[in-house]
Design a protein that fits this description.
Layout: H1 3-7, H2 9-25, H3 91-95, H4 97-102, H5 104-127, H6 130-138, E1 139-140, E2 146-155, E3 161-169, E4 176-184, E5 190-199, E6 204-220, E7 233-249, E8 253-268, H7 278-283, E9 297-309, E10 321-333, E11 337-354, E12 361-373, E13 385-387, E14 401-403, E15 405-418, E16 421-433, E17 446-455, E18 463-472, E19 481-491
Antiparallel strand pairs: 1-2, 2-3, 2-19, 3-4, 4-5, 5-6, 6-7, 7-8, 8-9, 9-10, 10-11, 11-12, 12-15, 13-14, 15-16, 16-17, 17-18, 18-19
Length: 494
């Protein structure tokens, strides 16, 4: 590291952030580090030995046969200039074939439908220096500390969206980052956000964020573990949310995040996606009216999450370790008082084994989440535990399952594809249940499976993903596949 970089940590952080933005902009190709192999050095020529002129033979005598000097050393082997001796085989090198065989279908998809074309794209991009050209096009200002990047999202079951992300580093003081986002998804779908983050060390930052979102495509299927796809419904909302968040995050160790937020949710009678609205289903007697439906809410919430993570987030390193986390967030409707209040809480436990020590990780985790009333009124349906769209329920659409509690176990396999990009294949079982899992049954569990590529944990909250997922009905209904999900997009966050 140069003395200049050491004396300007903010500039170094800005350079790293710019590099990551280039990678995400070019869909995960290896563009922020521009790796190139050092050319092979030609072995130095052997030193010429001192030659002795042969003496002339007396007249009449034949020339003696040429003989090699007896003291010439034997020809030496070409040195191994790279010092890359083959590593000895380990048990992990043999055991890695177990997940490779089990996950072969997913591997073939990510290898030939994702990695090969993305690899060809990134190779051409690197040779043509597309990263610098693209980043120079979208970035501006001194040292490219600001710019506007395009965003997009396609998620099965929801409106596709396009948008733009603005950022400006070291805005007011060193370590300050200001962002603004806007997204559009057609009629009655729009989102705007403004963020301001101040980082004063490599592990600590505080961020302020405000967003407003209008959308007509929220999903509702009912409440409970046995809800059916038959009653798929939509409801529209307008939501404004303001929050302040403090984060302390170590690469290996404690991740602490605390927040305070106030938000307002207003229900709207928007139509979307050729599906009936919740109000229409209720009017026709097909669904019971959800608790709190149509009651606008202005809520205040405080929360904390603590995670102990001993794994390395960096690709191509040994990522074995454990992750243990707990979270809690009580909230109250400030317009109705303590009678309409609730709390969200939960935890996770995950163990990971890097089979080869080079970023090929097999993980097994357990997840649980709960929502309980703190006052006399029921938890509003939009504040219940709602799963889908992310692991360990990535095979279901966001909003597909909701109730007072949820539990799941997942086995996943991750491997580095490119810089900051991981391949992932996962399978899990879980479902939502009533109060504190009181009606839990093994035959109520559903299957969720997904395969694709995502940004690695080291990239932070910004995200690039191409993921395909499947979800099933409960065991008691034959474990029939009933949910299909494809997610593709690029998003940014503080």
């Amino acid at each position: 590291m140069s003395a200049e970089t050491q004396s300007h940590p903010a500039r170094a952080r800005h350079q790293r952030a710019s590099c990551r933005a280039r990678s995400l902009l070019l869909l995960g190709s290896v563009l922020c580090s521009a790796p190139s192999l050092a050319s092979e050095q030609t072995p130095p020529p052997e030193e010429a030995g001192a030659s002795v002129a042969p003496q002339a033979s007396p007249p009449g005598e034949s020339e003696p046969e040429a003989q090699a000097p007896a003291d010439r050393p034997p020809r030496r082997d070409v040195p191994n200039y790279r010092q890359l001796d083959p590593a000895p085989a380990t048990a992990g090198d043999a055991l890695i074939w177990v997940p490779r065989v089990v996950l072969l279908p997913g591997y073939l998809v990510t290898e030939y439908a994702v990695r090969v074309p993305v690899g060809a794209f990134s190779t051409a991009a690197e040779k043509g220096n597309w990263a610098a050209s693209a980043f120079n096009f979208f970035a501006f200002g001194p040292d490219h500390k600001g710019g506007i990047l395009p965003t997009f999202s396609f998620n099965t079951g929801f409106r596709p969206t396009i948008g733009a992300h603005f950022w400006w580093g070291n805005t007011f003081v060193t370590g300050n980052l200001v962002t603004a986002d806007v997204s559009w998804g057609g009629s009655d779908w729009i989102r705007t956000a403004i963020g301001d983050q101040y980082r004063w060390s490599s592990t600590d930052d505080v961020a302020f964020k405000v967003f407003w979102q209008r959308r007509p495509d929220n999903l509702y299927y009912g409440i409970g573990p046995d809800t059916s796809d038959t009653y798929r419904s939509r409801y529209g909302t307008d939501q404004i949310d303001g929050r302040v968040t403090y984060t302390h995050a170590q690469k290996r160790g404690i991740h602490l995040e605390t927040h305070a937020r106030i938000y307002r949710t207003v229900f709207r009678d928007y139509q979307c996606c050729n599906d009936p609205t919740v109000a229409q289903r209720v009017e026709n007697g097909e669904l019971s009216e959800p608790p709190g439906f149509g009651v606008n809410t202005t809520a205040a919430e405080v929360g904390a999450m603590v995670v102990l993570d001993t794994r390395s987030p960096e690709p191509y390193t040994n990522r074995s370790g454990v992750r243990i986390g707990v979270s809690a967030a009580p909230a109250v409707d400030v317009t109705r008082g303590f009678d309409r209040s609730w709390i969200h809480y939960g935890g996770l436990l995950e163990g990971s084994w890097d089979v080869t020590g080079r970023g090929r990780v097999l993980s097994l985790g357990v997840f649980a989440a709960f929502a309980d009333p703190l006052g006399s009124e029921e938890v509003p349906f939009n504040e219940l535990v709602t799963v889908g769209g992310t692991e360990p329920f990535a095979g279901f659409l966001n909003g597909r399952l909701r109730d007072r509690s949820a539990v799941a176990a997942q086995l996943s396999w991750r491997w580095p594809v490119y810089a900051w990009i991981d391949g992932v294949a996962a399978v899990g079982f879980g479902n939502v249940f009533g109060k504190r899992l009181q009606d839990f049954r093994w035959d109520s569990l559903r299957l969720s499976a997904d395969v694709g590529v995502r940004t690695a944990a080291a990239f932070g909250r910004s995200n690039f993903q191409i993921v395909f997922g499947l979800g099933s009905e409960p065991f008691s209904q034959g474990l029939r596949i009933s949910s299909y999900r494809l997610a593709l997009g690029v998003t940014y966050d503080l």
